[in-house]
Amino acid sequence: MTETTTIQINKKTKIRLEALKEHKRETFDELISKLMTLIPEGDKEGRYTDEFRAGLLEALFDAKNNKQVSSKQMKKELGF
Questions:
Q1: Do 57 and 39 form a contact (C-beta atoms < 8 A)?
Q2: I need a labelling partner for 7 at 20 to 30 A (CA). Which of 15, 29, 47, 73 fits?
Q3: Cβ atoms 53, 59 nearer than 8 A
Q4: pLDDT, tens digit, for every residue of 3-57?
């Protein structure tokens, strides 16, 4: 038998997750596993670190929320 654990999520999050289920009997574990596949594991040069994958996810959230940094702004921050 697979070992399980309990996690706490906001009720609104649970409702949003339920809306993503393919079918009523799909478990949250199955759904979360599918969502995790959207974050690339690596490329032809090798596997990404977990830290890098988390950074990719954060960058996607930033792009979705229009939190991008212009190249001019980035150069200023980096001292170029």
A1: yes
A2: 47
A3: no
A4: 999 999 999 999 999 999 999 999 999 999 999 998 999 999 999 999 999 999 9
pLDDT greater than 90 at residue 59 = no
| Of 64, 70, 40, 38, the residue nearest 52 (C-alpha) | 40
Contact by Cβ (8 Å): 40, 53: yes
CA distances from 43 to 34, 40, 49 (A): 19, 8, 11
* Lookup: tokens for 24: 């009523």
Say how far residue 3 (Cα) sits from the centre of its chain: 23
Name, in order, each residue with C-beta under 8 angstroms of 40's C-beta and a sequence gap of 6 or more.
48, 53, 56
